[in-house]
Amino acid sequence: MSAAIVAEGLTKRFGRFTAVDNISFTADEGKITALLGPSGSGKSTVLRMIAGLETPDEGRIWLGTNEQTRKRVQERRFGFVFQHYALFRHMTVRDNIAFGLSVRHEPRARRDLRVDELLRLVQLEPFADRYPDQLSGGQRQRVALARALAPRPEVLLLDEPFGALDARVRRELRTWLDDLHRELGVTSLLVTHDQEEALELAHSVVVMHQARIEQIGPPEEIYNRPASPFVAGFVGSANVITGVVIEGRVAFGTYSIGGADHLPDGLEAHAYVRARSVHVARRPIGTATLPATVERAVRLGWMTKLHMRLGDGQRVTAEVGNDEAYGLTDGQAIYVDLREAKVFESAPPT
Amino acid sequence: MSVANGSSSRAGAAPASQWILIGLAAGYVTILLVAPLGGIAASVIAGGLDTLTSTLTAAEVMHSFWLTAIITVLTVGVTVVFGVVVAIVLTRDRFVGRRLLSAIVDLPLAVSPVIVGLMAVILFGRGGWFEPFFSAQGIQVLFALPSMLLVTIFICIPFVIREIAPVLNELGTQEEDAARTLGASSIQAFWRVTLPNIRWALLYGAALTGARALGEIGAVLVVSGAIQGQTETATLYVLRALEERQDASAYVVAVSLAAISIVLLIGIEVLKRRSVTAKEVA
Asked: I need a surface site. Which of B76, B131, B210, B243 has the fewest CB within 10 A?
């Protein structure tokens, strides 16, 4: 029923601007794959090319062993969910969901049965005769999903499906989509700029930046072993500490951090460390910790955010448990543990 | 409490200036539109029922209405079809000269209808560019229906385009994209998604076109020759009747034309309202 999507060397230019530059990846059969990146990274263009809404300048698209590159949108029959729903505003919920079946001349009785089934699936039975502008954002997106699923597509393409919704509805729909996907097992490709969404839903994450792929891997690998400074900086909020490599360490001021064995001496380097990976102590722990000053301790209830400055004035933010920050006051001198930092040579993305 | 006071004082202050504005708008419309129409209507009623029936049943009047009807229906048909095509091209496609084309579309609004008629005479009259071709085919363009139709269409080109282009712009291509991902061909997407979305703008544009075509006189006067019982439209009849001091007949035809236009516009409004309330009830 479902099959893998394979993108092979996809390139798309708009005039002199290259939106997508030689991209290849596989979205595994029956799994959710996320295309994660900031806006303008080209991820939506990749999705639109796979759907057939844009024609790639180079490269090929496969569904399993079946090439799709030259097929027209309506022949591909991939379900597509748009960020702004794109519901047919002059049709009721029922007619919206039935659209994909009626353009294919599905017999009326079978069509009605399928629409009822989907209305149940997306829990919108009482709203069948409403028009899109009489629904909330979350309800509209559920209609859009039901409409895309009605013709039983082999592939589901989701373009920032929760992007236009408020945070609470986003989280609700995310869990709901996860459940739904477990039930249906349709190969899905999810475009998002929300790392939490990608990490939570996807079986595999493709991180894109400036038209290229930065890293492909399962969520824990993307999070814990970023392959590039961009991934280190984009996924999870990271501190960036700048210094010069001396004997495998990044030196700044009179201090240094380890982890630069792969870089030659004298090179400028950046150490990336997530706020959640920074730890603090009242006393130095051997040579592992560096002195710092607490500028501001913000207590959020479930954790404490510490804004600190290192000896040479560079800023570091830590998100620590309340116990770890217990009694710390603004201006207090403490020690930070930055051993989880990842060192890269290039400049951080701006 | 202060909030309630603030809103009530605002609500209290508004009516004075608001009523002045409403009065100005209503007065302006009444003086310039309703009064003249009422005046003509009153003189028709004063003329009595006899003038009404005798005028409307006169052969030349019936023929002029028939001619006006043909021109109006054909003009609406042509401008609707081409208007939709041009509006889609102007809003969806990016090409060199798009702005120029967009400006040219408005040209008929800027050019006096008499000049439009003159252009047709220059093109199709004796020694005109297209004259040899049509005379070889034995087709009479000038002083006949073809040229009258041509100039009316020329003048009516902008209405449909200018009504639907903003709607198409606002609509974007998302719904059409969605239709195609659901298996609809481009033609199915147009009929089932785009057309229903622009239908009110299209109908309104068609109604404006119809009203304009009904009332067109300048260009038609130049190209038709206003031959009684042959190329005389209803507006041309009004003009001739006035010149011949048959004021009563002129008023009857004029009021009939105005009434048709008004009914057309009211009809569209009613249809629109009915569909909106039907949607709200559902």
From this structure: B243
